[in-house]
Amino acid sequence: MTLDSKVPAGPIAEKWDRHKFQVKLVNPANKRKHTVIIVGTGLAGASAASALGELGYQVLSFCIQDSPRRAHSIAAQGGINAAKNYQNDGDSVYRLFYDTVKGGDYRSREANVYRLAQISVNIIDQCVAQGVPFAREYGGLLDNRSFGGAQVSRTFYARGQTGQQLLLGAYQSMMRQVDRGNVKVFARREMLDLVVVDGKARGIVVRNLTTGELETYAADAILLCTGGYGTVFYLSTNAVNSNVTASWRAHKRGALFANPCYTQIHPTCIPVSGEHQSKLTLMSESLRNDGRVWVPKKKGDHRPPNQIPEDERDYYLERKYPSFGNLVPRDVASRNAKQVCDDGRGVGESGLAVYLDFKDAIGRLGRGVIESRYGNLFQMYEKITDENPYEVPMRIFPAVHYTMGGLWVDYNLMSTVPGLHVLGEANFSDHGANRLGASALMQGLADGYFVIPYTLGHYIASTPLPKVSTDAEPFKEAKASVQDRINKLLAVKGHRTIREFHRELGRVMWDHVGMSRNAEGLQRALTEIPKLREQFWHEVSVPGTPDNLNQSLEHAGRVADYLEFAELIALDALERGESCGCHFREESQTPDNEALRDDEHYSYAAAWGFNGVGQRPTLNKEPLTFEEVHLSQRSYK
Amino acid sequence: MANMTLKLLVWRQPGPTVPGRLVPYTADQISPDMSFLEMLDVVNEGLIRKGEEAIAFDSDCSEGICGTCSLVVIGIPHGPQRGTTVCQLHMRHFHDGETITIEPWRARAFPVVKDLVVNRSAFDRIIAAGGYVSVNVGGAPDGNTLPIGKKTADLAMDSAACIGCGACVAACKNASAHLFVGAKISHLALMPQGEVERYERAARMVAQMDAEGFGSCSNEGECEAVCPKEIPISNIARMIREYSKALSTHRKWQWKATTSE
Question: Which residue blocks in A42-105 are alpha helix, DSSP H?
Answer without folding.
Answer: 43-55, 93-103
